[in-house]
Write a structure and sequence with these properties.
about 10% strand; 14 helices; four-stranded parallel sheet; alpha/beta; four-stranded antiparallel sheet
Length: about 325
């Protein structure tokens, strides 16, 4: 338990929000490695799961390499787990946990559902399965960067309007994938589907339609082969009942059991991320602050856009965590 006299700009009742793929950047989490034994232990677990030196990978890789699902998923998860571990070393534990897309795996660890070692092994398998599927879709589409499937953010249209347009436009292989905020919905699809949709959404009132730095059409039926390939890796892993409130991308609600968490982990690959619903469920708990526990600032922006009153803070770098306690 943290002493209530600890100098923090937030109360102890804080939600940990873990970012997902797309938040990665070269060199992330290396500040934790140099300052924290818990982070060093996590780097060792991740290196074992990946069968390669994670410190060297993060130090030497460029942004394009880190974008690959088989690289991004274990590296982002490692960064998320390190941030949570450093917070714990300073006496802070989450009141509840949620993760956006891939970030849900770090949330599972924070809620005591799976171990860090199992988590890292799972995201390695998940990343490989998803990368293989993405490459297959791109090849069937003709190969090359211009034909790569992916995701795009639709800005300035209400979520219900975006979902209705996806259904009514009749564009093959186009899906509403991340229901992120009242101001942003992310769509998934083949390169052809995203290109065909761009002007349609602008004509409907979208301010912008931006391709994202992710390597696949995630959270859509196009990832069904990845889910099939990932299932055997997921099956033998033990999932315990959550030790604290844990929220699901698939349902947007709290997870009731380890069995449910395991079932949702597989469904999550092909199902939309109901992030607005998750944020509402978290706010309903009366939490007094949120921490973006991992790289980037995306979740901070989404939380603010949601209109929830609780403040949100960055906690993805050592200097950001240190600032919380000064």
């Amino acid at each position: 338990m943290v002493d209530k006299t600890t100098k923090t700009p937030f109360s102890l009742n804080a939600a940990f929000l873990f970012p997902g793929q797309g938040a990665q950047y070269p060199g992330m989490a290396l500040d934790f490695l140099k300052s924290s034994k818990a982070a060093a232990d996590l780097f060792a677990l991740a290196s074992d799961a990946m069968s390669r030196d994670m410190e060297a990978l993060l130090r030497d890789s460029d942004a394009e390499t880190l974008k690959r699902s088989d690289i991004a998923q274990p590296t982002v998860t490692l960064a998320n787990l390190c941030a949570a571990a450093v917070l714990k070393e300073r006496g802070l534990t989450p009141a509840c946990a949620a993760g956006h897309s891939l970030g849900e795996y770090a949330a599972l660890v924070s809620a005591g559902v799976i171990s860090p070692g199992d988590c890292l092994k799972l995201v390695v398998a998940r990343g490989k399965a998803m990368q293989t599927t993405v490459e297959k879709i791109a090849k069937l589409s003709g190969g090359g960067t211009d034909s790569a499937p992916g995701m795009a953010a639709v800005l300035g249209l209400a979520p219900e309007k975006v979902e209705a347009l996806v259904k009514s436009l009749g564009i093959a292989d186009l899906y509403a994938a991340n229901i992120n905020s009242p101001k942003q919905v992310v769509i998934s699809g083949t390169a052809a589907a995203l290109a065909a949709a761009q002007n349609k959404f602008k004509e409907a009132g979208a301010k912008r339609v931006l391709r994202l730095q992710v390597a696949g059409p995630f959270h859509s039926p196009l990832m069904a082969e990845a889910a099939d390939a990932f299932g055997p890796a997921l099956e033998p892993v033990s999932f315990k009942d959550p030790a604290l409130p844990l929220f699901s991308n698939v349902s947007g609600k709290a997870v009731s059991s380890g069995a449910e968490a395991k079932e949702l982990a597989l469904k999550q690959i092909t199902s939309p991320v109901r992030w607005i619903a998750e944020e509402s469920a978290i706010a309903a708990l009366g939490i007094e602050a949120c921490l973006e526990t991992g790289p980037g600032t995306v979740l901070q922006g989404l939380w603010r856009d949601s209109g929830n009153e609780a403040p949100v803070f960055a906690a993805g770098k050592l200097e950001e965590i240190e600032a919380l306690f000064n």
